[in-house]
Amino acid sequence: MLRAAGSRIVFEDGERFVSGDEMLSMIWRVAGGLRSDGVVAGDGVVLRLGVNPEALAAIMGAFVVGARVSGVRDQVLPDDAGSMLIDDERVNMWMKGPDNPQEPAGRPRDIARVLWTSGSTGAPKGCCQTYASMSAAWAAHPDRWPPAVRSLATRLQRYLVFGSLSSQVMLEYGVLTLAAGGTMVAARPPGFPDAIVRHRATAGVITVGKLNQLVRDQRAKPVDLGSLRALLVSGSPLPPGRLREALDVLGPVVFHGYGQTETGMIAMLTPDEMTPSALDSVGRPPVHIDVRDGEIYVRTPAQASSYWNDPEETAAVFVNGWVRTRDLGALGNDGLLRLTGRARDVIIVHAELVYAGAVERVLVIDPTVAEAYVIGRPDDTTGESVHAYVVPTPGSTPDVPALTHLVAKTLGDPAAPSSVTVIDHVPLAPSGKPDKQALAGE
């Protein structure tokens, strides 16, 4: 991939422009430095690096020597005293060494990456992906791209990267960008929409919360987003009303996908597929991904196989070759996957199970509701009770009694919210996902 790029720019960082040949040289220097410092296949390395060419070279160089690569979560090292810390100082030292080509040493059963989840449903978990699974991934191999990814690849001329290159999403779509002949562009603050304009970005990853803010900003004070061709919505499902609004304001640039750190991409809905009847879906799973609906189980060639130092959760989630997503959903006759909630997002009212996701989906049917978030609270009479928070569509005022009646009529009286609170926006967790725990703490 980098050899084929040659003199083409593959990474842009401010005034720095790194070609494929130069990036390959940097990778060889990192791999040589790791080996000189005694790192061999199976050893652990932990990256504490920014978003720059050296960070990409460090990740790839560590893969060359067959190391187990992990990022740092909130500046805290993983529970593994044997891992080498790779920081800017160490990488800069290696860059002074020779760039002799290095032989890859990754062993199929060894762990290649420990990918950390966002922690939105609890403490972050380290998803362990082996070298065999990483090699089976589609991103670097155009002949493996499913149709939705082929559509996306044509739009990745200038892909914004931020946060951490050791994250699943950033690196997966970064590698896809390079395979598609594009350039990874380091995004510097401020963020959306300024970064799109400043860097002439054609593509980027965005959370649901930040997408909603971008749409609000464009309505209030629009800027020229003419370069933009693809926004990959990540982290949580996008309600149909919000997806429709994003398409109206931003144009046909939104790719609505579904995936997990444990599995990578599970399904994706492209702008060309966003007909009115498809907006409530997360797209069509590729043919090489097996999906069992109900409580969704997934099997992919590139999935993780365990959690780092967590045998109990490993046994609960990685079951007989399948990954238990703990999401609820259904595959329609049209082949589209529709999510219906989370298996653990349950409120027990008078001993009856009420799924928060089901209530949220009913609430956003009302045209005055753009977003809905449902939580449970203890109740002396019913055990727990349902409480809803709704973000209105622009210029609308939700009718709270009508919303309560709509839920009761659709799902039954136990699901009817005991309270419906209108809010301007949902609080966001550090991951950028909606923070329902913050609502529960109010």
UniProtKB/TrEMBL annotation:
Molecular-function annotations in GO: acid-thiol ligase activity
Presence of keyword Cell wall biogenesis/degradation: no
Pfam (any one): AMP-binding_C
Keywords (A to Z) from UniProt: Ligase
Chain ranges passing through the membrane: none
PANTHER family in alphabetical order: LONG-CHAIN-FATTY-ACID--COA LIGASE, NONRIBOSOMAL PEPTIDE SYNTHASE PES1 (EUROFUNG)-RELATED
Name this protein carries in UniProt: Acyl-CoA synthetase (AMP-forming)/AMP-acid ligase II
Native source species: Paractinoplanes brasiliensis
